[in-house]
Amino acid sequence: MGHSVPPLNDQSLLKSQAYVNGEWIDAKSGKTFEVTDPSTGKVIGTMPEMNKEDTEAAISAAAAALPSFRKTTGRERSRMLRKWYQLMVDNAEDLAKLITWENGKPIADAKGEVTYASNFFEWFAEEAPRIYGDTVVASIPGNRVYTIKEPVGVCGLITPWNFPAAMITRKIGPALAAGCTVVAKSPGETPFTAAALAELAHRAGIPKGVVNFITALKNTAEVGETITSSNTVRKVSFTGSTGVGKLLMKQSADTLKKLSFELGGNAPFIVFDDADLDTAVTGAITSKFRSSGQTCVCANRIYVQSGIYDKFAEAFTEKVKGFKVGGGYEEGVTHGPLIHDRAVSKVEKHVRDAEEQGGKVLIGGQKMPDLGDNFFQPTVIRDMTADMQLAHEETFGPVAGLFKFDTEAEVVKNANDADVGLAGYFFSRDLQRCYRVAEALEVGMVGINTGLVSDPAAPFGGVKWSGFGREGSKYGIEEYLTIKMITLGGMGQPLQGS
């Protein structure tokens, strides 16, 4: 099949416009930006380059839709999300093709993402009818106190390109389940997947103005600032880098928004001497190289205890030898390109820096210009040290750096020596150590003897500079609700006798 794109089963899912107030529209300025296939560098199509004015119009549409949408019952909203979920399942093949086309991940990975993404709609369809308040025993006799949960209001959602479908559904699912309306900013690199989801929302009968998708590439900062500075938007949920998260938080301060941020990671992945070697190698491969290392929870620093270090390095490198890098639609391809040339430059910088400081490249380490500008060999480097860039920065690419350690105390200290704390992983067969280390790691999510922790039922999010708030799970909907307390006075009058 080479680099060519298989035609969609339903061509009407390929939209080149933004979706606002139930209609497909262009930017008011008429400007567009190009979206390219990271595998070939060829242009996929164009999308509207929207600005402040376009964003304000979308916010107004969401605000106009809010009064009636917030009054719908949880069951009604549940049915809408359920329909949207079913449409995603029915169109899974086309959605996967779009993801591979604009993101580059192999088609098998893209199919996995569509399943994961649609499952958020299924999960929150089930949470929508179960937004319970409490009855509170009052301190004052005669008072009766209870709480109800209400939608926070219009939500601004800003998502990244690495999971073009799942990052969106993980935010829109709970927002709609809670009774909020949304303005979602599609990732500039991968807006076609988002537009297909918008088309399916339309087909699912979600009322106009409830879900609005705006697109921008050059104007991303302007759109972001319009969302954060709008007093109509009561909540912002953002997934992306820590630097941008800090900026959005500053911008949101003036209007005191409710915020949830899922920011950068630098996941430690620890293999103890008592680990099962095959399980640890498999887990490390999954965690490190999924989506060519372009996930916020992927292993960034791999710490292996000295007793098993050489064996692990050898077995791990052997597995990487079996990878096939290429265009995502090609038969047998396991790993695709990076998203753009800037990503490749960062990866290369980390590899050269490690080499200069004594790291030994066991496999890979080079760009792959014969395949295209955005390809980099899956790389394993041993003899890593704490001074290297990779130890402190999120690589976001297919480079596995192996650090040697001797004691549990030392590795936990090194693992926690980071400003961020999203995911952490470790492999051990010692039950007491499993509890000890899991509790000692300063991260929001821990994987023990597994390299994959994402699940719609499990709360996703971090601590420290990885942000706050949780997505998915029973906690995910709380981010989109506020608690109202209601007190009734004078309720304790005695019953009159006959």
Automatic annotation (TrEMBL):
The active site is at residue 262. InterPro entries: Ald_DH/histidinol_DH, Ald_DH_C, Ald_DH_CS_CYS, Ald_DH_CS_GLU, Ald_DH_N, Aldehyde_DH_dom, Aldehyde_DH_Superfamily, Succ_semiAld_DH. It is an enzyme of class 1 (oxidoreductase). One of its GO terms (molecular function) is succinate-semialdehyde dehydrogenase (NAD+) activity. Keywords: Oxidoreductase. Its EC number is 1.2.1.16. CDD domains: ALDH_F5_SSADH_GabD. One of its GO terms (biological process) is gamma-aminobutyric acid catabolic process. It catalyses: succinate semialdehyde + NADP(+) + H2O = succinate + NADPH + 2 H(+); succinate semialdehyde + NAD(+) + H2O = succinate + NADH + 2 H(+). One of its GO terms (cellular component) is cytoplasm. Signal peptide: none annotated. Residues 24-486 form the Aldehyde dehydrogenase domain. Pathway: Amino-acid degradation; 4-aminobutanoate degradation. Belongs to the aldehyde dehydrogenase family. NCBIfam families: SSADH. This is Succinate-semialdehyde dehydrogenase.
